[in-house]
Design goal:
CATH superfamily: Metallo-dependent phosphatases
Strand order of the largest sheet: 3-2-1-11-12-9
Helix content: 25-40%
Largest sheet: 6 strands, mixed
Number of helices: 8
Order of helices and strands: EHEHEHHHEEHEEEEEEEHH
Structural class: alpha/beta
Strand content: 15-25%
Distance between the termini: 33 Å
CATH topology: Purple Acid Phosphatase, chain A, domain 2
CATH architecture: 4-Layer Sandwich
Bound molecules: fe (ii) ion
Radius of gyration: 17 Å
Number of strands: 12
Amino acid sequence: MKRALISDVHANLEALTAVLADIRSQDIREIFCLGDIVGYGPNPCECLDEVMRLSQVTILGNHDQATLFDPDGFNPVALQAVYWTREQLESANGSPLQINKRWDYLGELPRTHTEGDYLFVHGSPREPTNEYVFPEDVYNQRKMDALFSRVEKYCFQGHTHIPGVFTVDREFLTPEDIDYRYRLGDEPVMVNVGSVGQPRDNDPRCCYVVIEDSVLTYRRVDYDVDKTAQKIYDIPDLDNMLGDRLRSGR
Ligand SMILES: [Fe+2]
């Protein structure tokens, strides 16, 4: 069975639409979303509606959490985007029923999901919502040991927006390093599936993972970056740098 793993949509409807079309073109019916549906981007309600409709399992991201509760540890640009997102969810687009449905959905998202050997989180196996696992963390043996001690076999995550595979030998393999494919074996791994709506690995294309019979494939998908960036520029509460960064994928 094929399954698509998406993460960090960040209210980027053009990116999400392009990824969903790519998923459909491969006849994939199962989608898991690893959090941060909203935050930063201009279309939180629309993205939330699509994820609610199509994702079988969705994990709570730190931006989803910040929209619900008092945000903690956010920089001023991210914070302003959180408040704007909250306003949109409270007032815009849809009947009172739909508005309540969105809030209920966000409020009920789990922090982890386990399925046999597979663990799904937003951040890390140690701190599922908030901890970042960056590529350079492979040089921090203590951190990597602590993280892998919590991974039964395979952990899938997002949060950094930097796709790649962390091996138990403390290597970080970028999608290019592995020619976009990786076979899950006996050794535990942590897999960052990348970001749909705000990639930060200097490749502005959307990123997600398809998993089929223990083989992961990284997919990169073009979308109308200029259109999303322009929407951001047109919304005063969303800092222009949030549009600029989409163009460069950083
Ligand atoms: Fe994120």
